[in-house]
Specification:
The protein is built from 8 helices and 10 strands. By secondary structure, the chain is of the alpha/beta class. The chain folds into 2 domains: 166 residues, Rossmann fold; 80 residues, no CATH class. It binds adenosine-5'-diphosphate and magnesium ion (MG). Adenosine-5'-diphosphate binds next to strand 2 and helix 1.
Length: 254
């Protein structure tokens, strides 16, 4: 994937927490409709990089390009305008709202600002439009039948799908998922992988995952982080055979 086709690219990203260097001179590039995996053992810095890409952490250093244009790193309040949507490691649904209402919150860009009450627009026309978008998003994750359930009655794998629907409703160009398969069994992981493959027909996807085997079949390109640095990148096959990657994973037993 050439640099010119990259929908998102970062270079030289460094982030410290106090004395701890969580990321050091990290680069990453996501191509158009590409599924990119960010993998590495626990504590490698995956979530920190993910958070920098979605505005939750401000890097100490680094350059951010969107569609080839150098720009500031995103802030949570302009993420949707930049065409980026994300789910977080904790699913973060509002248990006492219905599934549909939870997804509607994604459409109003309010999930990150916490203005829940405003999610229910006074203007009926707006509300109907958003409701329709939310229904479409739920259908795309095959969860249309769950629309009227209270979120706190869902089985865990279903909460994962609903979280993705909530991200999809803003119609992102880049979808970022932090450990979407986390806590899922083998069958649900299969299902999640095929969903991600389907979504990549319309958007680029960045997938964070610490189990390498989970993303092997889904990603066209992997970046491997260890102790805050990219130790390998490339196709799943290349990365899997890389001695530095094998050593990093052997060291942790994951
Ligand atoms: N807010 C924070 N404050 C201090 N240290 C943090 C913070 N977030 C992450 N870290 C540390 O940064 C390193 C990378 O963490 P993280 O990005 O969560 O790794 P991963 O997602 O790969 O498991 C870890 O050593 C972690 O303890
Ligand atoms: Mg993490």
């Amino acid at each position: 994937m050439s640099i010119n086709n990259a929908v998102l690219r970062v270079e030289g990203v460094s982030i410290s927490f106090g004395g701890l260097r969580a990321l050091n001179d990290v680069y990453l590039e996501i191509g158009t409709r590409e599924v990119v995996g960010l993998i590495g053992p626990n504590g490698a810095g995956k979530t920190t990089l993910f958070n920098a890409l979605c505005g939750l952490v401000t890097p100490d250093a680094g350059v951010f390009y969107l569609a080839g244009q150098k720009s500031d790193f995103p802030r949570t309040d302009n993420l949707v305008d930049l065409g980026i949507a994300r789910t977080l490691q904790g699913v973060g649904l509002f248990g006492d709202l219905t599934v549909l209402e939870n997804v509607m919150i994604g459409a109003q860009h309010l999930a990150q600002t916490g203005l829940i009450s405003a999610a229910f627009a006074r203007n009926t026309k707006d509300e109907n439009r958003i409701r329709e978008k939310a229904r479409v998003a739920l259908e795309r994750v095959y969860a249309g039948a769950l629309a009227d359930r209270r979120a706190d009655t869902l089985a865990y794998p279903d909460t994962k799908r609903v979280a993705i629907a909530r991200a999809l409703v803003s119609e992102p160009k880049i979808l970022m998922l932090d450990e979407p398969a986390g806590g899922l069994g083998t069958q649900d992981i299969e299902w999640m992988n095929s969903l991600i493959r389907n979504l990549s027909a319309q958007m680029s996807v960045l997938l964070v995952e610490h189990h390498m085997d989970v993303v092997m079949n889904v990603c066209s390109k992997l970046y491997v982080l260890n102790f805050g640095e990219v130790i390998a990148s490339g196709s799943a096959e290349t990365v899997r055979r890389d001695p530095a990657v094998i050593a990093a994973y052997l060291g942790t037993g994951t």
